[in-house]
UniProtKB/TrEMBL annotation, chain A:
<dbReference type="Pfam" id="PF03450">
    <property type="entry name" value="CO_deh_flav_C"/>
</dbReference>
<dbReference type="GO" id="GO:0034875">
    <property type="term" value="F:caffeine oxidase activity"/>
</dbReference>
<dbReference type="InterPro" id="IPR036683">
    <property type="entry name" value="CO_DH_flav_C_dom_sf"/>
</dbReference>
<dbReference type="InterPro" id="IPR016166">
    <property type="entry name" value="FAD-bd_PCMH"/>
</dbReference>
<dbReference type="GO" id="GO:0071949">
    <property type="term" value="F:FAD binding"/>
</dbReference>
<dbReference type="InterPro" id="IPR051312">
    <property type="entry name" value="Diverse_Substr_Oxidored"/>
</dbReference>
<keyword id="KW-0285">Flavoprotein</keyword>
<dbReference type="Pfam" id="PF00941">
    <property type="entry name" value="FAD_binding_5"/>
</dbReference>
<feature type="domain" description="FAD-binding PCMH-type">
    <location>
        <begin position="1"/>
        <end position="177"/>
    </location>
</feature>
UniProtKB/TrEMBL annotation, chain B:
<keyword id="KW-0001">2Fe-2S</keyword>
<keyword id="KW-0479">Metal-binding</keyword>
<feature type="domain" description="2Fe-2S ferredoxin-type">
    <location>
        <begin position="20"/>
        <end position="96"/>
    </location>
</feature>
<dbReference type="GO" id="GO:0034875">
    <property type="term" value="F:caffeine oxidase activity"/>
</dbReference>
<protein>
    <submittedName>
        <fullName>Caffeine dehydrogenase subunit gamma</fullName>
        <ecNumber>1.17.5.2</ecNumber>
    </submittedName>
</protein>
<keyword id="KW-0560">Oxidoreductase</keyword>
<keyword id="KW-0411">Iron-sulfur</keyword>
<dbReference type="InterPro" id="IPR036884">
    <property type="entry name" value="2Fe-2S-bd_dom_sf"/>
</dbReference>
<dbReference type="GO" id="GO:0051537">
    <property type="term" value="F:2 iron, 2 sulfur cluster binding"/>
</dbReference>
Length: 294, 181
């Protein structure tokens, strides 16, 4: 249980990190918070020739607002999202979802970019990025490239990131003031990988009916899933218990996860609709609270 | 694109070879050591510095027994490399009491509440308690809150009940600056 040998590089600028990644490509891995990569190294599941530690790159650790975008640097530690005032005001789903990531000891090291690049289907930040229509910003030898979150996750722990590229930031659209959000997971123990999870943001119109619904679902497929069928079933409808429960069933066909040690396929089909229903219900309650100024 | 073997030697000039010299502020003193860049922080603390309160249960971030405070934050020391701590601060449970015959109020609380049995997770629990108190709230945490706060560290003996009491007792001792009522 010790890491295999590698050449350790700790660049202090993004340019330098990109230069290393350009040179070593798939023979190199980026070390961010290390909460997934270090276990993989310790278990010899990963054997990079070159390890590029990006923890000294200050430019990756910024949280900034530009107009209607909140940009979070790839190196921002997950715990920082939890009580960051700007993040809480602009994209309140983020701190809520982040609280579900592992345990506090993991969130003290784990980074935003690391979670997205690792792309575990049960992970909270990929699911949240898909629900929020976030954009992933990557840099390679030919410059900056932006990728929509729903295109970024391509398969089981597989992303659109090329071997020569470094993930540098995530851009989240600022959530409208009147919107409500909800995040729900089902896991056997606190901090475990979710058996299923859902992130929802909803807007209600003057008549109280849904004007927009965005839902991301984790752990039911190889990638986080956007629940488009659930969303379209709710637009224009009243946020009643029955309507939400009926629409939540629309997620079931998207469940592709096979039986595993933790849950059967059938159980995940059941859980998927449960977490979607609960996340939307929580989001509706928040939207009502905001409207009533509580 | 060059073959990687050849270019690895070209970056060695800038980033060094498989060993590096690091200076880390550990338990209130600076220590300088040459380390292999693939040595984990946990192995460095145990094998190089003799700080054997850092317990290795799983070595892949599941059990939490190797928890230390890195720049004041609880982290799993099996999931960091020693080379990453150059210029930073690390605290283990050895730093808490003034000398081996004394106990810190948090340690007293664990002893008096029987917040340990085999002791394997105890250094991690004690450090996490210190962090809870230092970053803490003015009031004593409820049982459920304590369970949530310590959920990153596994204890296979106690069933947690007495650890929860020990954390609450430690909170009272540290807040009042004196002994528990």
């Amino acid at each position: 249980m010790k890491p295999p040998p590698f050449t350790y590089c700790d660049p202090e600028s993004v340019d330098e990190a990109v230069a290393l990644k350009s040179e070593y490509g798939s023979d190199s891995l980026v070390l961010a918070g290390g909460q997934s990569l270090l276990p993989m190294l310790n278990m010899r599941l990963a054997r990079p020739e070159v390890l590029i530690d990006i923890n000294k790159i200050g430019d990756l650790q910024r949280i900034e607002r530009w107009d209607d975008i909140l940009e979070v640097g790839a190196g921002v530690r997950q715990y920082e999202l939890e009580d960051h005032q700007l993040v809480g005001e602009l994209v309140p789903l983020l701190p809520e979802a982040t609280g579900y990531i592992g345990h506090i000891e993991c969130r003290h090291r784990g980074t935003v970019g690391g979670s997205l690049a690792h792309a575990h289907s049960a992970a909270e930040l990929p699911c949240t990025a898909v629900a929020l229509d976030a954009t992933v910003v990557v840099r390679g030898p030919s410059g900056i490239r932006t990728i929509e979150a729903r295109d970024f996750f391509q398969g089981r722990m597989t992303t659109a990131l090329e071997p020569e590229e470094v993930l540098v930031a995530v851009r989240y659209p600022v959530t409208p003031q009147a919107a409500g959000h909800g995040f729900v997971e089902v896991a056997r123990r606190a901090g475990d990988f979710a058996l299923a999870g859902a992130a929802a943001v909803v807007n209600l119109g003057e008549d109280g009916c849904f004007t927009s619904v965005s839902v991301g679902v984790s752990s039911i497929s190889d990638t986080p899933v956007r629940a488009s069928a659930v969303e379209s079933a709710l637009i224009g409808e009243a946020p009643t218990e029955n309507n939400i429960a009926r629409a939540a069933e629309e997620i079931v066909p998207s469940v592709t996860a096979a039986d595993d040690l933790h849950a059967t396929h059938d159980y995940r089909r059941h859980l998927a609709s449960v977490v979607v229903r609960r996340a939307i219900t929580a989001a509706v309650a928040r939207a009502h609270e905001r409207r009533n100024g509580t | 694109m060059t073959t990687s073997k050849a270019s690895t030697t070209s970056i060695a000039a800038k980033y060094g070879t498989a060993r590096r010299t690091v200076t880390v502020h550990v338990n209130e003193r600076d220590v300088t050591r040459e380390v292999s860049t693939r040595t984990t922080l946990a192995d460095f603390l145990r094998d190089e510095l003799g700080l054997v309160s850092v317990h290795l249960g799983c070595e892949h971030g599941e059990c939490g027994s190797c928890t230390v405070l890195f720049d004041g934050h609880s982290v799993r020391s099996c999931l960091m490399l020693a080379v990453q701590t150059d210029g930073h601060t690390v605290e283990t449970v050895e730093s808490l009491a003034g000398n081996p015959a004394e106990l810190h109020p948090i340690q007293e609380a664990f002893a008096e509440e029987q917040g340990l049995q085999c002791g394997f997770c105890t250094p991690a629990m004690v450090l996490r308690t210190k962090e809870i108190i230092e970053t803490g709230r003015d009031r004593e945490l409820t049982d459920a809150e304590v369970r949530h706060e310590i959920s990153g560290i596994l204890c296979r003996c106690t069933g947690y009940q007495n650890i929860v009491r020990a954390v609450q007792s430690a909170q009272r001792r540290c807040r009042g600056g004196g002994r528990d009522a």
